[in-house]
Amino acid sequence: MDAVWLSPIYPSPMADFGYDVSDYTDVHPLFGTLEDFDALVGEAHRLGLKVVLDFVPNHSSDEHPWFVASRSSRDGPKRGWYVWRDAARDGGPPNNWESLFGGPAWEWDEAPGQYYLHLFHEKQPDLNWRNPETRGAMLDVMRFWFERGVDGFRVDVLSLLIKDEAFRDNPPTPEWRTGYPPHQRQQRLYNEDRPEMRELVREMRAVADEYDERVLIGEIYLPLDRLMAYYGEDLNGIHLPFNFGLVLLEEWEADAVRRLVEQYEAALPEGAWPNWVLGNHDNPRIASRVGPSRSRLAQMLLLTLRGTPTCYYGDEIGMHDVEIPPHLIVDPVGKSAPGHGRDPERTPMQWDASPNAGFSTGTPWLPVPRDYAENNVEAQRNTYRSQLALFERLTELRHELRSLATGSYRSLDTRTEPVFAYLREYEGERVLVALNFGSSPEEVDLSEAGTEGELLCSTLMDREGGVDPKRLALRPGEGVVVRLPG
Question: How many degrees, rounded to 5, is the angle at CA 349 between CA 386 and CA 39?
Answer without folding.
Answer: 115
